[in-house]
Amino acid sequence: MCGIAGIFHCGTPKPVDPERVSRMADALAHRGPDGSGVWTGPGVGLGHRRLSIIDIAGSPQPMHSADGRATIAFNGEIYNYRELRRELEGEGAEFRTDGDTEVILAAWLRWGVECLPRLHGMFAFALYDAHRRELVLARDRLGVKPLFMVHLADGSVAFASELKGLLAHPLLRREADPLAVEDYLAWGYVPDHRSILKGVEKLPAGHYRVLRHEAAPPPPVQWWDVDFSRRHRGSTADLSAELLHHMREAVGSRMVADVPLGAFLSGGVDSSAVVALMAETSRDPVTTCSIGFDVAALDETSYAEKVAHRFSTDHHARTVDPGDFTAVEGLATMFDEPFADASALPTWRVCQLAREHVTVALSGDGADEAFAGYRRQLFHAREEQMRTVLPAALRRPVFGGLGAIWPKADWAPQPLRAKATFLSLAEDGAEGYARAIGVVAPELRAALYTDRFRREIDGYRAEDVFAQIMREAPARSGLDAAQYADLKFWLPGDILTKVDRTSMAVSLEAREPLLDHRLVEFAAALPQRERIRGRQGKWLLKHTMRRYLPDEVLFRPKQGFVTPIADWLRGPLAGEARAIASGARLARTGWFDETRLARMAEAHISGRSDHSRLLWQLLMLDRSLDRLGIAA
Description:
Layout: E1 2-9, H1 18-26, E2 35-41, E3 44-50, E4 63-64, E5 70-78, H2 81-90, H3 101-111, E6 121-129, E7 134-139, E8 148-151, E9 156-160, H4 163-167, H5 178-187, E10 200-202, E11 207-212, E12 221-222, H6 236-253, E13 261-264, H7 269-281, E14 287-293, H8 301-310, E15 314-320, H9 328-335, H10 344-355, E16 360-362, H11 367-371, H12 375-389, H13 392-405, H14 419-425, H15 429-437, H16 442-448, H17 451-457, H18 462-471, H19 478-504, E17 509-511, H20 517-524, H21 528-531, H22 539-544, H23 551-554, H24 565-570, H25 574-581, H26 594-606, H27 612-628
Parallel strand pairs: 13-14, 13-16, 14-15, 16-17
Antiparallel strand pairs: 1-3, 1-9, 2-3, 4-5, 5-6, 6-7, 7-11, 8-9, 8-10, 11-12
Helix pairs in contact: 2-3, 6-7, 6-20, 9-27, 10-19, 12-15, 12-19, 13-14, 14-15, 15-18, 18-19, 25-26
């Protein structure tokens, strides 16, 4: 795993200062502490920071092809590089190294952009072809590895694995994008179609972009998508056997490394499944790492220990104080953009623990999106059944009216928390699901904004982008469309961003075998009854893993990492909550109604209401603005 950065002049190919590229790359030193390199040519410069995983001594970057035509800076891993190498050698290619970077170079020289579908793995790379006088920026299918870019005033495009790399460039404008603020308040993160800084873009997952000298940059080109409109045929037994084959292939391919390798183990279905298949493949005990809490309601370590004992792993566990609020500043620095997923803190802690023992860790991320494991997906499938029975002309007035008067009761038992369901049923499936996955409802966001900020966003509504993805999804059902949108929007923006930044912050490579694209494509074509049965999501996955895991692991309620933010904001962070409305950088932006924020902060601190999610979002937004040096 690595960090890349660079500069490319789309106009006149001006000289690129290697020191500038070096500073951009060095801002990513945490992503690659084992080596660094910079290369410049007419109008182009590439920088690289290396975390050595494969061919430790023999694959320095930026790397040149043997004939000097192509140069690459690459972040990620290509899991089928050995098979590709043999194919390319059969066609006359010669190799000087034993790693995957040179294989990408050879694949480009042989197939051009058509090499991308042949690459199985996670990657973001910048490849300069001197013969074609073009720079190709490419990102893996599902967006495991990030790539930021920006057009600068001197006619150049700068790019980097993290926003930190762009921040090291003196020409970067530090002006907040108000539309990104609207997106962030809606989702709790800045999605991939937006950046907190105006002008900064993220290359979308499954896309590439070709930059040429003396030509305006064309838009990104999509080279991969997932199709939910097809359906597998066959019995449950046949589909289960095929699923197990894909899972074994995915896990086995990700166990190739020249450094110590292990796995995160939460004791949930997905990480336990990965560990089970690793143990099946490995001669030696698998190294596993778990984080626990000293609050019983938050702790899952007993399940992790059972799985570790079952497969005789070399297990390491650490108890984390759930009151550890001191990492707030570290999180803001780690993510650059505002990021309010509270599970980032325990994810960071388990990455720290893993890095003490291994350099590569496999995770269970991605199965919920691919196999319908989220409770919201189950609810959406049921709501879609109701939408089929009840016409919109009836649903809108009845459920819309109930949703308007029903009290918001996050503290109440689940059956009494019906407000969101009523509001969702009043809308079509896309609008309803967008509302279901949001953090701050559009009505509350609108009430929080000042008149000036409403004019700045000019009617833009964050949910519209997500709903449009669902409406245009290659899908047969509402569940298909919801899963498609989760894979295209939620997964890269939230889940993969969280894992990438927290693992790279401690120079740990995280690999996601359950996001192998062949496995995801297989899951997308499963009949709906193989994904959801009764109240169980991920049904076929759980059924398949019963030969490895006990039912108490497979069928217990989903928990996930939890952080007691509500208590923090009533205790040690109460002063921070009050400062959001007056005194903090956020308060000086003029975006939010200070009086309303102050009332909400006091209501939360006193215990009269729970506004913890919103206050946490605003606190992390304030920290991000401060970190980025955005003028108030």
